[in-house]
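job 3f2a | input accepted
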Amino acid sequence: MYSIRVEMLRIFAVILVGYNEITFTDALQEVCNAEDFNAQCGRGEIIAMKSANLGRMKLGKCISQDFGHIGCQHSVIDKLDSLCSAKNECKMRKIARKDFETSTSHSPCPGGLEVYLDVDYDCVQAPIDSIPCQKHHAWMQV
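job 3f2a | predicted structure (142 res):
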């Protein structure tokens, strides 16, 4: 599920740069409990979050045994969108369920089972006015 912010970033980039010059890099990450999450784009690109879920989506790298509740998940796109979208790089150290707990969200996964983070984002060309300027020193010869 795309967030409105992702679509707004894409539209803004197309308007500023022109459609033929836009490149999108798609990145999908499965981040296990206690691992670091690192979203990074190339020079002149920014992160546009597409989806972020915390749970036990499938057996794989992070979940090796089925103790039931495979498929339980909840969206954490709002948290990662606010932390990462429109930035060149975003990091979270040693992710844990508690990093995504708020008074309004409740995980459908039982508390004693490991969960992981499943994140999908694009790297889109940054609008020209959002790229930090490099300081250059000009020296004049006399």
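job 3f2a | The radius of gyration is 19 Å.
job 3f2a | closed
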